[in-house]
Amino acid sequence: MGMSLQEIRRAHLIGIGGINMSGVAKLLKRSGIYVTGSDVAQSEATDELVGLGISVAIGHDASHVPSDVDLIIYTSAAPENNPERVAARMRGIPQMTNFAFLGQWLGEKRCMLICGTHGKSTTTAMAGLLLLAADQDPTVIVGSRVPEFPDGNVRFGSSDFVVIEGDEYAKHFLEFEPSVVVLNNLELDHTDIYPDLDSLMEVFRELLQKIRNGGMVIANADDRHVQTLVGQERFALLERGIRVRTFGFGSHADHQILDYQPRAGEQLFSLRDAQNRVQRFRLLIPGRMNVMNAAAALTLVHSLGVALDVLEKTLASFHGIWRRFQLLPSPAGAGEDVLFVSDYAHHPTAVAATLEAAKSFYPGRRIVLVFQPHQRKRTRDLFFDYIPSFDRADALLILEIYDVIGRESADQEPISSRDLQDAIVRHDAERGVMRTVDYVPSPNDVLLVLKRWIRKGDLVLFVGAGDIYKIDLTRL
Fold it and tell me: Which of the two ends of the chain, N or C, has the fewest CB atoms closer than 10 A to its terminal CB?
């Protein structure tokens, strides 16, 4: 059974400014629960929560835990010796992670979990908006901000449908018992948690085993790791009445992408369903990966009984989400006809896909990539995959690696973005390419370099999962 919200009158959230934690805070407040929280630093997210009437303390201290709180919800980044967790333990207050709470809170609702290494947030947003267009009134919890949702990272609905971005980091998604799992793609990432691909595959196997009887798997037909996993589990899934529906460019897909036409400023494609009915779609966000994200969301909603033609208009009006190929306002000092884009890509495959999208959507423009690697262990473990992932950039500026609090180990071999810069320069020499590849120690130094580099018609991409998005372009 799900946790009864009637039992909780007051909840305190440790790490309340996180993208999922702030969503949980809004969910609780919307349900009539008194919410307080704390975080290490003030941010846009904490300011937003304060604006909603939630009391947020900056820093972690035992005194921040209210005397009459019923439940502590904490981010997995808050260790057991966090002073607020220690105080709560001494007072016998129940504690759980944000994902454990959501798993219990959902109860008997129909949970649709959007999973995979890349494209989770965009696919979650698309699926939520498509269900909304089909009058299904879903609740949606997404790891980004969606312009169409008044609350940004959360949308509150009254139906049983709940669409949630399923995070594989620290095995968070195993807290759920979903009715539907969407498998976008599978690739080694989060190397601090998963030493190899087999360990990642094993956790996804556990997830498939948690799907409720009579549920559904929506799987990428073009991804060999997804197909291997689903192939191995297919008999066990079918025995429990769980349907498998596939999507992709391959002719073996149940929902096949046909007549794909990337153009400047738009993408056109058709989707053929299992009954051979074909619907044409227009997409205003770039990249083949976003056509796959759209196909995943369309396959999910169509498999719930919604006709594809009902969904065409919603997809054509989708302009993307925060930090996923997000077009930024051009500063006055940038010069003529220069575009600025912010993107969250931090895995080599995602970086290469973002550059590919930029080339196809904005043909003829010089691509200036400003990249901030995310976490030293990931940078070391995927080092040789990163080097060619930047090939489509015409000029490359690499920031020092962003250290993630609580996820870096002191005993690791030192690694710097300078190592990456040296390797890329050697790689360019080997392939006979001449381009500028520069290094800056911090985001503060980026604008000085860009002032020298930028010329008319450039597309400047700010890419990474750290604090690169905080660079103030108005100072350019």
Answer: N
